[in-house]
Amino acid sequence: MAENIMVLIFFHALIFLHTTEAGCHDKIDLVFLIDASGSIGSANFRKIKSFVSNSVSHFTIGPNDAQVGAITFSSQPHFQFALNKYKDNSSLSNAIQHIPYQSGGTNTDTALTFVEQNTFTAISGDRISAQNILVIITDGKSSHPPKTALEANRLKQRNVQIIAVGIGNADKAELNNIASDPAYVLYATDFDSLSHIYDAIHSIACNLVFTTQTPPTTTASTTTCPCIDEVANCNQYGVTICHGAYKPWASRNCAHYCEFCHESSGATLPTFAPIIGK
User: Fold this and answer.
1) Cβ proximity of 48 and 191 under 8 Å
2) Across-strand partners of 81?
3) Looking at the domain that runs over 2-211, which CATH code has it been given?
4) Domains of the chain: which residue ranges?
5) What pLDDT does residue 253 have?
6) Residue 155 in contact with residue 115, Cβ under 8 Å?
Protein backbone atom coordinates (compact mmCIF):
# COMPACT_ATOMS: atom_id res chain seq x y z
CA MET A 1 0.00 0.00 0.00
CA ALA A 2 2.84 2.42 0.84
CA GLU A 3 4.33 1.79 -2.61
CA ASN A 4 0.98 2.52 -4.26
CA ILE A 5 0.64 5.78 -2.33
CA MET A 6 4.11 6.88 -3.42
CA VAL A 7 3.37 6.05 -7.07
CA LEU A 8 0.11 7.96 -6.78
CA ILE A 9 1.88 11.01 -5.35
CA PHE A 10 4.57 10.86 -8.05
CA PHE A 11 2.02 10.58 -10.85
CA HIS A 12 -0.12 13.46 -9.59
CA ALA A 13 2.97 15.61 -9.05
CA LEU A 14 4.04 15.11 -12.65
CA ILE A 15 0.55 15.90 -13.95
CA PHE A 16 0.46 18.97 -11.70
CA LEU A 17 3.77 20.27 -13.00
CA HIS A 18 2.82 19.76 -16.63
CA THR A 19 -0.65 21.26 -16.37
CA THR A 20 0.72 24.26 -14.49
CA GLU A 21 3.28 24.86 -17.21
CA ALA A 22 0.61 24.43 -19.89
CA GLY A 23 -1.69 26.96 -18.20
CA CYS A 24 -4.27 25.01 -16.22
CA HIS A 25 -7.05 27.54 -15.71
CA ASP A 26 -8.78 26.47 -12.53
CA LYS A 27 -12.20 27.84 -13.44
CA ILE A 28 -14.10 25.19 -11.60
CA ASP A 29 -17.06 25.03 -9.24
CA LEU A 30 -15.86 22.61 -6.58
CA VAL A 31 -18.08 21.23 -3.83
CA PHE A 32 -16.85 19.09 -0.92
CA LEU A 33 -19.36 16.62 0.51
CA ILE A 34 -17.87 15.67 3.87
CA ASP A 35 -18.80 12.65 5.97
CA ALA A 36 -19.45 13.80 9.55
CA SER A 37 -21.04 10.56 10.80
CA GLY A 38 -20.45 8.89 14.16
CA SER A 39 -17.67 6.63 12.89
CA ILE A 40 -15.49 9.65 12.09
CA GLY A 41 -15.14 11.18 15.55
CA SER A 42 -14.28 14.81 16.30
CA ALA A 43 -10.49 14.32 16.22
CA ASN A 44 -10.52 12.66 12.81
CA PHE A 45 -13.03 15.21 11.54
CA ARG A 46 -10.42 17.89 12.20
CA LYS A 47 -7.99 15.89 10.04
CA ILE A 48 -10.55 15.81 7.25
CA LYS A 49 -10.95 19.58 7.50
CA SER A 50 -7.17 19.96 7.28
CA PHE A 51 -7.22 17.79 4.15
CA VAL A 52 -9.92 19.96 2.58
CA SER A 53 -8.15 23.17 3.55
CA ASN A 54 -4.80 22.00 2.20
CA SER A 55 -6.44 20.69 -0.97
CA VAL A 56 -8.09 24.02 -1.82
CA SER A 57 -4.86 25.89 -1.09
CA HIS A 58 -3.59 24.62 -4.46
CA PHE A 59 -6.31 26.60 -6.24
CA THR A 60 -6.66 30.31 -6.89
CA ILE A 61 -9.98 31.24 -5.27
CA GLY A 62 -12.14 33.95 -6.82
CA PRO A 63 -15.14 34.70 -9.05
CA ASN A 64 -13.04 34.22 -12.20
CA ASP A 65 -11.08 31.23 -10.93
CA ALA A 66 -12.06 28.40 -8.57
CA GLN A 67 -15.11 28.57 -6.33
CA VAL A 68 -15.58 26.17 -3.42
CA GLY A 69 -18.67 25.11 -1.51
CA ALA A 70 -19.11 22.63 1.34
CA ILE A 71 -21.78 20.31 2.72
CA THR A 72 -21.47 17.91 5.64
CA PHE A 73 -23.63 14.85 6.07
CA SER A 74 -24.49 12.13 8.56
CA SER A 75 -28.13 11.19 9.15
CA GLN A 76 -29.02 14.47 7.41
CA PRO A 77 -27.07 16.83 5.13
CA HIS A 78 -26.06 20.27 6.40
CA PHE A 79 -25.32 23.16 4.06
CA GLN A 80 -22.10 24.85 5.23
CA PHE A 81 -21.45 27.46 2.56
CA ALA A 82 -22.24 28.16 -1.10
CA LEU A 83 -19.85 28.31 -4.03
CA ASN A 84 -19.98 32.10 -4.19
CA LYS A 85 -19.65 32.73 -0.44
CA TYR A 86 -15.87 33.17 -0.19
CA LYS A 87 -13.78 35.15 -2.66
CA ASP A 88 -10.22 34.42 -1.50
CA ASN A 89 -8.11 31.60 -0.08
CA SER A 90 -7.76 33.09 3.40
CA SER A 91 -11.47 33.48 4.16
CA LEU A 92 -12.22 30.10 2.59
CA SER A 93 -9.61 28.33 4.73
CA ASN A 94 -10.97 29.99 7.85
CA ALA A 95 -14.52 28.88 6.99
CA ILE A 96 -13.41 25.29 6.47
CA GLN A 97 -11.72 25.15 9.87
CA HIS A 98 -14.98 26.32 11.51
CA ILE A 99 -17.19 23.60 9.97
CA PRO A 100 -18.88 21.81 12.90
CA TYR A 101 -18.86 18.07 13.50
CA GLN A 102 -22.27 16.36 13.54
CA SER A 103 -22.17 12.60 14.29
CA GLY A 104 -25.02 10.29 13.27
CA GLY A 105 -25.61 7.81 10.43
CA THR A 106 -24.19 7.67 6.90
CA ASN A 107 -27.07 8.61 4.60
CA THR A 108 -24.94 9.31 1.56
CA ASP A 109 -27.86 9.02 -0.87
CA THR A 110 -29.78 11.80 0.90
CA ALA A 111 -26.65 13.95 0.87
CA LEU A 112 -26.15 13.48 -2.88
CA THR A 113 -29.78 14.44 -3.51
CA PHE A 114 -29.21 17.56 -1.42
CA VAL A 115 -26.12 18.40 -3.50
CA GLU A 116 -28.08 18.12 -6.74
CA GLN A 117 -30.86 20.38 -5.49
CA ASN A 118 -28.87 23.00 -3.59
CA THR A 119 -25.26 23.42 -4.71
CA PHE A 120 -24.74 23.38 -8.47
CA THR A 121 -27.40 26.04 -8.96
CA ALA A 122 -27.28 29.66 -10.08
CA ILE A 123 -28.43 30.94 -6.70
CA SER A 124 -25.47 29.17 -5.05
CA GLY A 125 -23.04 30.69 -7.53
CA ASP A 126 -22.75 27.90 -10.11
CA ARG A 127 -21.31 29.19 -13.38
CA ILE A 128 -22.22 27.81 -16.79
CA SER A 129 -18.65 28.31 -18.03
CA ALA A 130 -17.04 26.39 -15.13
CA GLN A 131 -16.46 22.66 -14.74
CA ASN A 132 -18.58 21.24 -11.91
CA ILE A 133 -16.70 18.88 -9.58
CA LEU A 134 -17.94 17.13 -6.45
CA VAL A 135 -15.49 15.63 -3.95
CA ILE A 136 -17.09 13.17 -1.54
CA ILE A 137 -15.04 12.15 1.51
CA THR A 138 -16.14 9.16 3.59
CA ASP A 139 -14.78 6.46 5.88
CA GLY A 140 -17.51 3.84 5.52
CA LYS A 141 -20.34 2.37 3.50
CA SER A 142 -23.53 4.26 2.87
CA SER A 143 -26.74 3.18 4.59
CA HIS A 144 -28.48 2.61 1.23
CA PRO A 145 -25.89 1.65 -1.47
CA PRO A 146 -28.39 1.24 -4.39
CA LYS A 147 -29.90 4.68 -3.72
CA THR A 148 -26.42 6.15 -3.34
CA ALA A 149 -25.39 4.83 -6.77
CA LEU A 150 -28.64 6.15 -8.29
CA GLU A 151 -28.17 9.65 -6.87
CA ALA A 152 -24.52 9.72 -7.95
CA ASN A 153 -25.60 8.84 -11.49
CA ARG A 154 -28.10 11.70 -11.48
CA LEU A 155 -25.27 14.12 -10.80
CA LYS A 156 -23.09 12.58 -13.50
CA GLN A 157 -25.93 13.03 -15.99
CA ARG A 158 -25.82 16.74 -15.15
CA ASN A 159 -22.13 16.76 -16.13
CA VAL A 160 -20.90 16.87 -12.54
CA GLN A 161 -17.57 15.08 -12.27
CA ILE A 162 -17.31 13.15 -8.99
CA ILE A 163 -14.07 12.41 -7.11
CA ALA A 164 -14.40 9.92 -4.25
CA VAL A 165 -11.97 9.93 -1.32
CA GLY A 166 -12.14 6.84 0.88
CA ILE A 167 -10.54 6.47 4.29
CA GLY A 168 -9.85 3.32 6.30
CA ASN A 169 -12.86 1.00 6.05
CA ALA A 170 -14.52 2.85 3.18
CA ASP A 171 -16.17 0.47 0.72
CA LYS A 172 -13.93 0.53 -2.37
CA ALA A 173 -16.58 -0.98 -4.65
CA GLU A 174 -19.05 1.71 -3.66
CA LEU A 175 -16.42 4.42 -4.14
CA ASN A 176 -15.91 3.18 -7.70
CA ASN A 177 -19.68 3.32 -8.29
CA ILE A 178 -19.89 6.85 -6.94
CA ALA A 179 -16.89 8.30 -8.81
CA SER A 180 -17.12 9.39 -12.43
CA ASP A 181 -14.18 7.14 -13.25
CA PRO A 182 -12.08 4.65 -11.23
CA ALA A 183 -9.14 7.01 -11.80
CA TYR A 184 -11.00 9.56 -9.66
CA VAL A 185 -11.03 7.31 -6.59
CA LEU A 186 -8.45 8.17 -3.94
CA TYR A 187 -7.86 5.98 -0.90
CA ALA A 188 -6.09 6.67 2.38
CA THR A 189 -5.45 3.78 4.77
CA ASP A 190 -6.16 6.05 7.75
CA PHE A 191 -6.89 9.71 8.52
CA ASP A 192 -3.22 10.60 8.94
CA SER A 193 -2.52 9.30 5.42
CA LEU A 194 -4.73 12.04 3.96
CA SER A 195 -1.67 14.28 4.21
CA HIS A 196 -0.06 12.25 1.40
CA ILE A 197 -2.70 13.27 -1.16
CA TYR A 198 -3.17 16.98 -0.49
CA ASP A 199 -2.40 17.90 -4.12
CA ALA A 200 -4.44 15.09 -5.71
CA ILE A 201 -7.72 17.03 -5.98
CA HIS A 202 -6.02 19.88 -7.85
CA SER A 203 -4.19 17.45 -10.15
CA ILE A 204 -7.40 15.65 -11.11
CA ALA A 205 -9.26 18.95 -11.53
CA CYS A 206 -6.59 20.21 -13.93
CA ASN A 207 -6.82 16.98 -15.88
CA LEU A 208 -10.60 17.41 -16.09
CA VAL A 209 -10.20 20.95 -17.40
CA PHE A 210 -7.97 19.63 -20.20
CA THR A 211 -9.98 16.53 -21.12
CA THR A 212 -13.32 18.37 -21.23
CA GLN A 213 -12.09 21.09 -23.57
CA THR A 214 -13.42 20.91 -27.12
CA PRO A 215 -10.78 19.30 -29.36
CA PRO A 216 -9.66 21.22 -32.44
CA THR A 217 -11.42 20.52 -35.72
CA THR A 218 -9.36 18.38 -38.10
CA THR A 219 -9.57 17.86 -41.83
CA ALA A 220 -8.60 14.93 -44.02
CA SER A 221 -5.19 16.48 -44.65
CA THR A 222 -4.39 16.77 -40.92
CA THR A 223 -5.61 13.49 -39.48
CA THR A 224 -2.32 11.63 -39.89
CA CYS A 225 -0.77 11.24 -36.45
CA PRO A 226 2.94 12.20 -36.32
CA CYS A 227 3.44 9.68 -33.51
CA ILE A 228 5.59 11.93 -31.34
CA ASP A 229 5.55 12.74 -27.65
CA GLU A 230 4.91 16.38 -26.79
CA VAL A 231 6.12 15.61 -23.25
CA ALA A 232 9.69 14.43 -22.89
CA ASN A 233 9.18 12.22 -19.82
CA CYS A 234 6.08 10.20 -20.70
CA ASN A 235 7.74 7.02 -19.44
CA GLN A 236 7.87 8.51 -15.94
CA TYR A 237 4.08 8.75 -15.86
CA GLY A 238 3.79 5.02 -16.61
CA VAL A 239 1.20 3.21 -18.73
CA THR A 240 -1.56 4.38 -16.36
CA ILE A 241 -1.99 7.47 -18.54
CA CYS A 242 -2.63 5.36 -21.67
CA HIS A 243 -6.01 4.14 -20.45
CA GLY A 244 -9.16 5.35 -18.74
CA ALA A 245 -9.77 8.96 -17.78
CA TYR A 246 -6.22 10.11 -18.57
CA LYS A 247 -6.25 8.76 -22.15
CA PRO A 248 -7.43 12.05 -23.77
CA TRP A 249 -4.55 13.91 -22.15
CA ALA A 250 -2.08 11.19 -23.13
CA SER A 251 -3.31 11.11 -26.75
CA ARG A 252 -2.24 14.73 -27.12
CA ASN A 253 1.01 14.54 -25.16
CA CYS A 254 2.31 10.94 -25.17
CA ALA A 255 1.02 9.45 -28.43
CA HIS A 256 4.28 7.66 -29.26
CA TYR A 257 4.81 6.25 -25.77
CA CYS A 258 1.23 4.92 -25.60
CA GLU A 259 1.35 3.68 -29.23
CA PHE A 260 -1.90 5.45 -30.06
CA CYS A 261 -0.85 5.95 -33.65
CA HIS A 262 -0.90 2.19 -34.18
CA GLU A 263 -4.41 1.64 -32.79
CA SER A 264 -6.01 2.01 -36.21
CA SER A 265 -3.86 -0.82 -37.55
CA GLY A 266 -5.25 -3.22 -34.96
CA ALA A 267 -2.36 -3.15 -32.50
CA THR A 268 -3.30 -3.90 -28.91
CA LEU A 269 -2.16 -1.70 -26.06
CA PRO A 270 -0.72 -3.43 -23.00
CA THR A 271 -3.12 -4.05 -20.15
CA PHE A 272 -2.37 -3.35 -16.50
CA ALA A 273 -3.93 -3.16 -13.05
CA PRO A 274 -4.87 0.47 -12.21
CA ILE A 275 -3.12 2.00 -9.22
CA ILE A 276 -5.91 4.40 -8.30
CA GLY A 277 -9.33 3.05 -7.42
CA LYS A 278 -8.27 -0.57 -6.88
Assistant:
1) yes
2) 70
3) 3.40.50.410
4) 2-211, 220-265
5) 73
6) yes
